[in-house]
Amino acid sequence: MENCIFCNILAGKIPASKVYEDGEMLVFKDIAPVAKIHLLCIPKEHFKLLSEMDAGRAALVGRMLQTIAEHAPAWGLEGGYRLVVNQGEAAGQTVPHLHIHILGGETLPWG
Ligand code: AMP
């Protein structure tokens, strides 16, 4: 997707601070962190919403969650972390490419 920021990061046209990459996903630092540690996990395949998942994409999102869980301690998140997936404009989704926010590195407020 030409106009998608995250597709341009994947294509190497926009720099990013990468912490993990494999054949189907990338994890990198959010440019405007809202927690001490704020990472984004994105699929290499472009789609915007969880409602666009088919069985293959659902399995991919499952592997993204598994990868996050496996690597979280190495990313400084051994004390725990929060995952956020904004869906649509009303939720504040600004980038139309599915992404999982990974927040932690501190005690996070709730409510
Ligand atoms: P959302 O509001 O859920 O769509 O989240 C989009 C996130 O992408 C925001 O937290 C932004 O700070 C982040 N972001 C936007 N552009 C970049 C970029 N070039 N590199 C890293 N993070 C970005």
Oligomeric nature of the chains: single chain
CATH superfamily: HIT-like
- Give the averaged pLDDT, no decimals: 97
Strand order of the largest sheet: 1-2-3-5-4
The arrangement of helices and strands along the chain is: HEEEHEE
Question: Structural class from helices and strands?
Answer: alpha+beta
Largest sheet: 5 strands, antiparallel
Q: In one word, what is the shape?
A: globular
Strand percentage lies at: 15-25%
The termini sit apart by 36 Å
Helix content: 10-25%
Given the structure, what is the number of helices? Answer: 2
What is the CATH domain class?
Alpha Beta
Gyration radius (Cα, Å) is 14 Å
Query: How many beta-strand runs?
Result: 5
The low-pLDDT segments are none
Q: What is the CATH architecture assignment?
A: 2-Layer Sandwich
Associated small molecules: adenosine monophosphate
How would you portray this structure in words?
This protein has helices at about 5-10, 55-70; strands spanning about 20, 25-30, 35-45, 80-85, 100-105. The protein has about 110 residues and is of the alpha+beta class. The model has no long low-confidence stretch (mean pLDDT about 95). The termini are far apart. It contains 2 helices and 5 strands.
Index terms:
alpha+beta; HIT family, subunit A; five-stranded antiparallel sheet; 23% strand; binds adenosine monophosphate
Short structural summary:
The protein is α+β, with helices and mostly antiparallel strands and 111 residues long. It has two helices and five strands. Helices cover 21% and strands 23% of the residues.
